[in-house]
Amino acid sequence: MSQSLSIDSQARWKQRFRAPTLSWSQVAAHAPDRGLVASNLSGSYQLHSWDVSTGELRQVSYAPKGVFIGRLSGDGHFIYYLHDEDGDEMGRFVRVPFTGGKPQELTPEFPPYFADPYLNPTGTMLGFLVGKPEGVDLYVVPLGPNDGVGAPRWVFHNPVPGLLGRRLLALSSAGTTAIMISKPHNPSTYEGLLAIDLATGECIDQLQAEPGTSVALGDYSPVSGDERLWATIQRGDTRQHLIWNPRTGERLSLDLSGLMGASPCSWSSDGTRLLLWQEDQGHKRFAIFTLAEQSIQVLSELHGTYWSSYFGNTGEIYTHWGMIQDGSVVGPEIVSLDAISGSQRHPLVVLDPVPSGRPWQSVSFSSSDGQQVQAWLITPERSGPYPTIIDLHGGPHMQRMVDPAPDLQMWVDHGFAVLSVNYRGSTGFGMAFEQCIVGNAGHWEVEDIVAARSWLVTEGLARPEAVMLTGWSYGGYLTLLALGKYPDLWAAGMAGIAIADWGLLYEDTHEALKVSLPIRLLGGTPEEKPAQYQISSPINYAEQVKAPVLVIQGRHDRGCPPRQMEQYVARLQALGKRIEIDWFDSGHGSLHVEEEIGLYERMLTFALTALKAK
What we know:
α1 packs antiparallel against α2 (406-413) and α4 packs across α5 (474-485). The chain has an 8-stranded mixed sheet with strand order 31-32-34-33-35-36-37-38, sandwiched between helices. A 4-stranded antiparallel sheet has the order 1-2-3-4, with no helix packed on it. The protein is built from 10 helices and 38 strands. It starts with 11 loop residues before the first helix and ends with a helix. 17% of the residues lie in helices and 38% in strands. Among the domains are: 270-353, Beta Barrel (Thrombin, subunit H), CATH 2.40.10; 360-613, Rossmann fold (3-Layer(aba) Sandwich). The protein is α+β, with helices and mostly antiparallel strands.
C-alpha cells in the first residue's frame, strides 16, 4: 500500500486486470449443451463458444478491437455479432460456426450501422433496428433451412428516433412476430410496446402504458410456435409482470405479491415456468413461478454475487457467481444450482481466481437536500485519514455493486481509500431516485458527490486536501462538472471517455444516440433547451477549475465524440489551467487488457504526481 507507483509488469494490481473473467453467458434454447460467453481469456474481450458438458471454452471472434456483445442461435449452430474495425460500434453483422471459422457477412450491401443483433429462440430469424434522423427501421434476415441466410428485408418504420439500446426488440419462436419499443418515456423507460407482423409489416397489437406508468420488454417463450412473452408495466416503484400473447390479445397478470421486488429472468425450456430473481433489503434468492398454477416456489437465500442467470440443461439453474471472501469478490464462475432447493450443485466453468483485495463496506450519508445516498467504501490496511478517490460509475442508469473491481482495488494498493458512489440516477434505489436527474442532468449527481466528500472528511477517512475524482463515460462527465462547479474541494480529477459539452455532443454523436442520451436526459434538443445545455456542460465552468485534470478519450468514440473534448481541453489550456489529455485508438472504452492497464497506469501516475504536489 505504497504511495509510489508500482510499475512492475507482475504487480498485483496489474494481475487483477489480467485475471480471466466472464462478462456474460448464454445457452442455446434448443441445444443446451452449447453455450456462449464473452471473456478476456485471450488478452482482449472476445466471444468464446462454450461446451457446457466439459466446460471447454473456444475463442471464435478475433475482432481487432474486441467483441463484447454476441448472440448464439437457438439451435446452437452459429454465433452472431457486430463486426467493426476501429471500435466505434459501427459495422455489419457476421456469424461464425459454433466450432469456429471464418466470419460470414450477413448484410454486405448495407452501409455500416449501429445496432445489436436479436435472434428468435429457435434461430430462424435475425432482427435489428437501424436508427436514422427520421426514426428507426426494423429489418429481419431469415435464417435456414440448412443453415442458409436469406436477404435482409425491411419490415417496419417507427417515426420516433433514438430507440436504440438493450432489450428493445424481441422475435417470436415462429419468426412471425416482432415486439419493439414504441416511444421513449424517459432515459431508461418506454411508453409502449408494438407487436409487428413480420409478413405484412402491420402493427397487430400494442401494450400501451397508462399515464404515470412505463413498460419494459421481456423475452419470448422458447417453445416453437409459442407466441407468448413476458413484459413489465411499472408505476413508480411498483412492477406488474404479465404474459402477453399479441396474436390472441391474451394478457395474464403474474401475482408476485408474495415476493417483493422479484422479476422474471428466464423461461423454462417447455414454456411452463419462469425463473425469478429477487434482491430485496439485502436478501438475494431465486424463485420459480409455475404459470398453470400461478404458484411460486422460493429457493434458498444465496450468499455472494450473482448475475446472468437462466434455466440450463435438465432444468437446472445456471448462474454467474462470485464468492465474497473477506469482503472482496473472488471469481467469477458459472455454477449450476438445484432447481428444487437452490443449493449449489457443481461448477460449469472455473477460471483462475482473481487476486484478492481489500473488503468492501456499504455506507450511506445525507446529500444537500437530506436524500440518503449509498456508496461502497474500501480502505487500506493502515489507519486513516487517507488520500481518497471518489469513484463515479457510468450510465447514469446503472449502479456499482460488489465485484472483483480491479479499477478500485488498484487505488487501495497504492494507499488510497476509495468511495464508489451510487449517486442519484443510479438504479436499484427506487424510480424517484433514478429519474430525478431527468431534465437537469448533473445537478443532483454533483450534490451527492460533494456530500460524499463531506462525509469522508467528517468521518476522518479522507485528508481534505487530497480528495480526487475519477470516472468513465457519465462518471467522467460528472468528474469534469464537479471540478468546475466546486473547484476548491478537489486535489485532481481523472475523466475517461467523458462528456464536456452537451451541445457539441449532440451535433457530432450518431443519430441513433441523440435521443437516447442528450435529448431525453436534458429534456429536448439544444434549440429547445439552450439554457439547460449550458448549465449541464462542464465546458461552461472552465474558468473556475483549479485542480489538475487528466482526460483519456477514444479517437473513434461515437457516444462521446472527440471534438467536444478537444474544445474543452483547448479552453482550459487557453485559460492556463493544468490539463493533460491522452488519446487511445478505439471507441467508447478499450476491450484490450494491456491497453486498459496502460490507461489506468497513466491515471495512477497523474494522481500520485498531484498528491506529491500537494
